[in-house]
Specification:
Elements: E1 5-10, H1 14-23, E2 29-35, H2 39-49, E3 53-55, H3 58-63, E4 69-72, H4 79-88, E5 92-95, H5 103-116, E6 120-122, H6 125-128, H7 130-140, E7 147-155, H8 175-191, E8 196-203, E9 209-217, E10 223-229, E11 238-242, E12 245-249, E13 258-263, E14 269-272, H9 281-293, H10 303-320
Parallel strand pairs: 1-2, 1-4, 2-3, 4-5, 5-6, 7-10
Antiparallel strand pairs: 7-11, 8-9, 9-10, 11-12, 12-13, 13-14
Helix pairs in contact: 4-5, 5-10, 8-10
Length: 329
Amino acid sequence: MSATVRWGVLATGGIAASFTADLLEMPDAEVVAVGSRSTASAKAFAERFGIPRAYGDWAELAADPDVDVVYVATPHSAHRAAVGLCLEAGRAVLCEKAFTLNAREAGELVALARERGLFLMEAMWMYCNPVVRELARLVADGAVGEIRTVHADFGLDGPFAPDHRLRDPAVGGGALLDLGVYPVSFAQLLLGEPDRVSADALLSPEGVDLNTGVLLGWDSGATALLSCSIVADTPLTASVTGTKGRIEVPRGFFYPEGFVLHRDGREPEEFTVPGRRDSLQHEAAEVMRCLRAGATESPLVPLDGTLAVMRTLDAVRERIGVRYPADTL
């Protein structure tokens, strides 16, 4: 792997644009190709960002020998097909979250990557954020003692029209996969896969979740109270409480500027890390570090952790009665 990592971008939507813009600011990254199902969309995206090659077919992007790694930014309903195509073509992949529609699809992609010896990582940028990494380190080192509760929420006030993708079961609509993946991933970063899952939700006429509450339980005695919504602007905060203290993360917990650690018998301690809080460069840097090291997965966003989160999301959907067409395939 050369010093400069060459990226291909699969999809041309908003998150693809944000990620590409951040990549172009990194001296050791180069965006060499973009792929879309529409030639016109690919060409427009390429012209916007100065990308040399535009493909109106995913397979053409995946086959480009100058691409070291593909960033898949499609809706999650297309992740199984897009990532599988890239892996079959021998490309490393960074795939947006939610990783897939269900744990079965996720398992198929992880098995394929491991069989081919190829790098694969979920784009859970929260895990790569230096503030979140410091929080996880402190918790692991016992700064708050044994964890007893985790709280986190992610809600948007909407409203979203019935024909919006967030209301469409065919593309994995609902609050859980788009937003709930963050609170669930936050809790499992600190506690691992839960032993028990309970949930309740308000469903739309189309059968997707509009407002969901989740209770996770661990045999250690820890619990996580989580929520997600596409009908309510929730605080977007998180907290971790243990036997010796607590950590409070302000609004925007999944890309925080900092947090406050409260320890018994001490003054509150504020932790901040300089830099742009919404930067996607942290996850891109981790991908490139892994590729240069010859690693096939990241220790920051391990594939087994991604699979565990997908199993929890499946369990939540089972409890609240949300099924996608892909679940029956």
